[in-house]
Amino acid sequence: MVDRERNVYVVRRVHFSAAHRLWNPAFSDSENWAIFGQCNNPKGHGHNYTLEVTVRGRVDPETGFVVDLTKLKEIMTERIVSRVDHKHLNEDVDFLHGINPTAENLAIRFWDELKDHLPGGELHRVRVYESDQNFAEYLGMEGKP
Amino acid sequence: MVDRERNVYVVRRVHFSAAHRLWNPAFSDSENWAIFGQCNNPKGHGHNYTLEVTVRGRVDPETGFVVDLTKLKEIMTERIVSRVDHKHLNEDVDFLHGINPTAENLAIRFWDELKDHLPGGELHRVRVYESDQNFAEYLGMEGKP
Amino acid sequence: MVDRERNVYVVRRVHFSAAHRLWNPAFSDSENWAIFGQCNNPKGHGHNYTLEVTVRGRVDPETGFVVDLTKLKEIMTERIVSRVDHKHLNEDVDFLHGINPTAENLAIRFWDELKDHLPGGELHRVRVYESDQNFAEYLGMEGKP
Amino acid sequence: MVDRERNVYVVRRVHFSAAHRLWNPAFSDSENWAIFGQCNNPKGHGHNYTLEVTVRGRVDPETGFVVDLTKLKEIMTERIVSRVDHKHLNEDVDFLHGINPTAENLAIRFWDELKDHLPGGELHRVRVYESDQNFAEYLGMEGKP
Amino acid sequence: MVDRERNVYVVRRVHFSAAHRLWNPAFSDSENWAIFGQCNNPKGHGHNYTLEVTVRGRVDPETGFVVDLTKLKEIMTERIVSRVDHKHLNEDVDFLHGINPTAENLAIRFWDELKDHLPGGELHRVRVYESDQNFAEYLGMEGKP
Amino acid sequence: MVDRERNVYVVRRVHFSAAHRLWNPAFSDSENWAIFGQCNNPKGHGHNYTLEVTVRGRVDPETGFVVDLTKLKEIMTERIVSRVDHKHLNEDVDFLHGINPTAENLAIRFWDELKDHLPGGELHRVRVYESDQNFAEYLGMEGKP
Known about the structure:
Six copies of one chain form a homohexamer.
Chain A: E1 8-20, H1 29-36, E2 45-57, H2 69-84, E3 87-88, H3 103-114, E4 122-131, E5 134-138
Parallel strand pairs in A: 1-3
Antiparallel strand pairs in A: 1-2, 2-4, 4-5
C-alpha cells in the first residue's frame, strides 16, 4: 500500500442514467414487496446516477498531477459508464448479473472494475449517488473513510 | 382568462424516479435506433425527474397566499407523483398510454392532469426536468413563457 | 415603458437567513392552525432565502453592461439584505410591518423597495426562494413572466 | 465496534426549516453581540437545515442493503425532523434545552438521539448543514472522518 | 414567426471554462478600473460558464420531440463550446473580437451564432451564466421572456 | 497533535474566480500539449473555484463553537481569496510562483497559507473545487481523510 504521508486526493464525478429493480428471486412476491417496497416495481424504475471516484497519491512534481483527470475520466467512461448508461441494470450489464443493484452493491462492483485500471495513483473510494438525497460509498477491504 | 395585472407567480417542485424507453412502434428497429439512439434501449433506462408547477393569481389579502402550497403539493402528489414515481412510464401509467414519454409529452400530459384540479389560482406553466441539463416546459394553448 | 426590442435581461442572486411566522392576527388560533399549519408555530421557524432580481435594458455599447452588477448588488444589499438578514421578518423589519411574510408578499414588497433605486435598466422581475422547492415571483402591475 | 473491513457506508439526507438564536445567557448583552454578532438577534433568524446521516456496515447478501434507507429515513423523521422542523430551536425542542444551538451542538445532540435507534448498521457520522456554505460533523467519541 | 399556440419549450445546458477580461481600450486605465473594478485585471480571470439554450416549437407527433436534443447539443458544441472552451475570450475567439466579453454580449453573440443552425424548432432564448449568482439572457429583437 | 476523541469538524466554503494555464516551462511545446491538452492554451482559461476548509477541535462549552466561522471566513478571505480572486494564478499570485496551478498544488499551497493562522481549532482538510465535477483535497503530512 502507498505510504499515506503527503498524499493528495483527487476526485472526479461522471453521470449516467439507468433503470433498475430491487428484488431477490429467492424471495416470494410478498417478501419482495415487504422488503423493497415500490423499488420492487416489476417493470423497474430509474435514476440519474452520479459515480464519484477518489484517487490518492503523491503529486508528480513535473506535472502537478496525482493522476491525469482526463485519462481517469476515460477509464471511468470505458469501464463503467459505457456499460451502464441508458441501460437496465438488472438485465443489460454483464458484471452486475446475479446481484441486486442497490447503491451498495454498485459501489462494490464499480470498485472491482476500476481498481486495477487506474492511469495513476491508488483507488481510495467509490461513491454512487442514486439522488442528491442518498448514496453509498466503498473504500475496499481496509477502507476507512 | 385571469386579468394578469397584479399577478404573482408561485412555483412548487416535486421529484420522482421512473424508467422509460423512447421509441415508436410504427417505426422499424433501425429507424428507432437512428432517431432515439441509446434512449431506445429495449429494457429501458431511467431518470430522477423534477416536476415544477407554476400557478399565477392575485395574493389573497387575508392569507398572503396565491395558493396554499401544501394543498398544491398534495394535488401534484395525488394526480402525478403517486402514479409515476418508481414506475415504468411506458408500461405502468394509464394516462401516458400510447405516447412516447419524452419530456415534451410528459409536460403536456401533466398539464392536462393538473389544469382543472388546482386548489386556487390558474395553471401557468408545467416544467419537466429529466436532469439538470435538459428539460421541457408547456404553458397551454396560449402559453407564452 | 422601455422599448422591449433588443433588450437583454441580467439577473443577480443574493442570499439571506431569516425567521418568520405565518399568521393573521384577525384569525382565531384554530383558524391560523387550519390555514397555516406548522408555519404558524408561535415562536417562528426560518429559512435560507434567495432573492433574485432581473433587470432589463439595452446593452451600453461602451461598457457591454445593461447595468453594473456590482452596483446592483450594492443596492440589493443596502435596501433589502441589510434589513432582513439574520432578522425575524414579522418583528424586526419596518417595511414588512402589517403583512404576513409569505414569499408572495415578500416579492411584492422587495419590488417596491427596489423599483426606483436601480443603478440602470428597468426592474423586470423579483423572485424570492424560500427553498429550492418553492418560490414566488412578481413582475409589477403589468408583469408577464 | 464493528470490524471495518468490507464495510460499506450509506448516506441519507433530510431537510428541515427552523429558527434559532445564538447566545449564552451567562454572558452580558455586549459579550453576546461581540461573540455571536448578528446571529444574536433577540427575535432569532433561521435556516433551511440539512441533516445528513452516514451508517456503516456489511452488505446483507440477501437484500443488498447495509440498512433499509426507507426505515432509516423514518427514524430520522421520527427522532429528529418531527421535533425540529418549523420550530424555534432555542424554545420549542426538549432535547436541545440548555445548549446554544450551533451546528456543532446540533450534530452532537442529533448523534445522541439517533445512535441507539438505527434499523441496522452502526452510526458513523452526523452532519448538519446550516447552508451550502457551512456545516458541522460529529463522528462520536472515537470519530475520525 | 411561428404560431405560438401549442408550443412546447425545450432547454439544454452545456458548460465551458474560459478566461476573460472586462475593459474598453478606448478608456483610460483609470476609467477602466473605475468601471470594471477587479474584472479589469490585465492578465484576466475566469469562470465556469453555463450556456443554456431554449428552443420552441410544436411536438412532432411521431417522435415526441420539439427538437432532437442530441443534435441540438452537437450544434451547441460545434458552434460555441468548441470555440470558447478552455480559451481566453478576449484573445482566442474570432466571433468575439472587438467586443467586451460581458455575459450580456456573450448572450447576443451566441444567439447570432446559433439562430440559423438549429436542427429544428425556433431559437427562443440564450442564457449565459457566469456563476450561480449572475447571468444574462437574450431573446432576440422581439424577445419577451 | 490534538486528541481526536470528542472532536467536531466544521466546514466553511468560499468562492473565487481566476484564470490559469497548465504547463511546465521545462517541457517542449509538444510535450505540454500532450500532457495538459486544452488546459495548456497559452492565453489561459478559467474557473469559478470553491475553497472548502475543514477545522477540527472540541466544542467550547461557553460558545458552542469549535471555531468562530465569521473569523475563519475572514482569515480565508485575507490569506487566500483576496490574493487569488479575479487574478491569473500563473502570473499574479506571489505564493503560487513557480508551481503549476493544478487543483492538487493549490490545495497544498492553500494549506500552507492557512495552517498557522486559524482563529481556533486545527486545520484538518483543504479542498479545492475547479468545478462540480472535479476537485482535490489535502490533509497535511499525516492526513487521512
